[in-house]
Write a sequence for this structure.
């Protein structure tokens, strides 16, 4: 299952990360997985505030 996690960044933008985790994953685990994704990319450092993150399940897309 895929989850989307939006994290606000220092530059005022919001960066959204896709996290692959089971449907019963803890929200805190999803947050930390997304927070550590930004270490590998060129984006500005995200705020490490759990309460500022938006987390939702990614919609399934159909293959055509």
């Amino acid at each position: 299952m895929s989850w989307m996690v939006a994290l606000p960044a220092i530059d005022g933008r919001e960066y959204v990360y896709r996290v692959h985790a089971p449907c019963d994953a803890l929200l805190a685990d999803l947050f930390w997985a997304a927070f550590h994704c930004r270490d590998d990319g060129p984006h500005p450092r995200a705020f490490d505030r759990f309460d500022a993150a938006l987390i939702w399940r990614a919609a399934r897309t159909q293959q055509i």
